[in-house]
Amino acid sequence: SAADAIATGRRVAEKLLVRLGTPYDIAGREHRSGTSIGVSLFGVDTTTVEEVLKRSDVAMYQAKAAGRNTVRFFDPQMQSAVEARAAMEVDLRQSLSRDDLVLHYQPQVGPGGEVVGAEALLRWTHPERGPVSPGEFIPVAEQSGLIVELGEWVLQRACAQIAAWAAHPQTARLTLAINVSVHQFRQADFVDKVRQALEHHRVVPARLKLEITESMFASDQESIINKMRHIKALGVGFSLDDFGTGYSSLSYLRRLPLDQLKIDQSFVREVLTDPNDAAIARTVIALGQSLGLAVIAEGVELQGQRDFLAAHGCDYCQGYLISRPLPIAQFDRFVMPDAGSDG
Asked: Does pLDDT of 343 surpass 50?
């Protein structure tokens, strides 16, 4: 019966929670994983394997929203979420094929306010819904595998923009950072894709920076590090994004071919009011200095935050205090207020 199937599914899921919650060792440090489990019953919710997997995925995201170490069973009321997710995937694929996506650029500045580079952020305006938050469409892209194609599109556009900047003395030395998902990074041909993009657009490799997150190192560390070294050999830089929120341990952080640490905005937000966040920010800056890495703080919204970070040696910052992410024409005017833009 359905009741028996649910009871059996719950017992199995709870055993998995216990097993996956067991502490494990990485590079001499103890770690624990939080687990979210979604369950859909074959023959009860649906009769195809594909639908079971899709509905389990929806239930899993409900479990994640409810907190760590949680189990959720697919409920018919979740069906609207399944349909909305499927519709968004179709629309996103069509927008990618029509080249409807755009990059916006958030300036990164030094202590004196000079613009040293930017982070490229993907933006999507749905033909009917209008602007769609990356928080909505990026998870859909990741679940569908479309994130790899999106990442390739961003890489090509970023290199094209670096090439355009190279034509102007005021922008020729700007760096451009792009976010790389673990799905994209783990593609067997990713190093070749980066090399081909650099060669096709004839850009100086050092102008491109790949932002990776700590979660990328949750598994296959050696493979990831090896691939990083091959990309680093091309001349491309690496920034570790969201530093302090994930899996990093000092024992392997020093092995990564990084150029920059990025202080997560969750620490920057309360740096003036929370002594713990202030201590973390100072520690990350000191760590970066000791490892010979530049340090950038994201999410800087107050002058007091910027002053605090600069006083403790933070090299760069970005955030709404400086500028929101801008379309390319506005970004170029931000950098070159006295010149027109043809980028």
From this structure: no
Whether 243 contacts 264, CB under 8 Å? yes
Cα–Cα dist 82/46, whole Å: 13
E strand or H helix that includes residue 119 = strand 115-126
Q: How are beta strands 102-109 and 115-126 bridged, if at all?
A: antiparallel
Given a contact cutoff of 8 angstroms between Cβ atoms, the answer to whether 13 and 19 are in contact is: no
d(CA 64, CA 67): 5
The dihedrals phi and psi of 318, each to the nearest 5 degrees, come to -145, 155
Taking alpha carbons only, the member of 148, 60, 55 closest to residue 96 is 148
Q: What is the pLDDT of residues 28-83, one digit of tens each?
A: 666 677 788 989 887 766 678 888 888 888 888 788 767 777 888 888 777 777 78
Under a CB-based contact definition with an 8 Å cutoff, are residues 103 and 68 in contact?
no
C-alpha count within 13 angstroms, C-beta hemisphere, residue 118:
28
Q: Which of 322, 271, 261 is nearest to 296 (CA)?
A: 261
Phi-psi region of 211 (alpha: psi -120 to 50; beta: other; left: phi over 0): beta
Q: How far is CA 322 from the centre of its chain?
A: 21
Strand partners, 120: 105, 178
pTM: 0.80
DSSP E strands: which ranges in 249-321?
260-263, 294-297, 316-317
Least confident stretch, 154-158, 187-191, 212-216, 330-334:
212-216
Angle between helices 190-201 and 221-234 (to 10 degrees): 20
Can you read off the two tokens belonging to residue 324? 């929101």
Domains of the chain: 2-74 (3.30.70.270), 90-335 (3.20.20.450)
The residue among 235, 304, 233 whose CA lies nearest residue 268 is: 304
**Which residues lie below 8 Å from residue 24, measured CB to CB, with a gap of 6+?**
30, 31, 32, 33
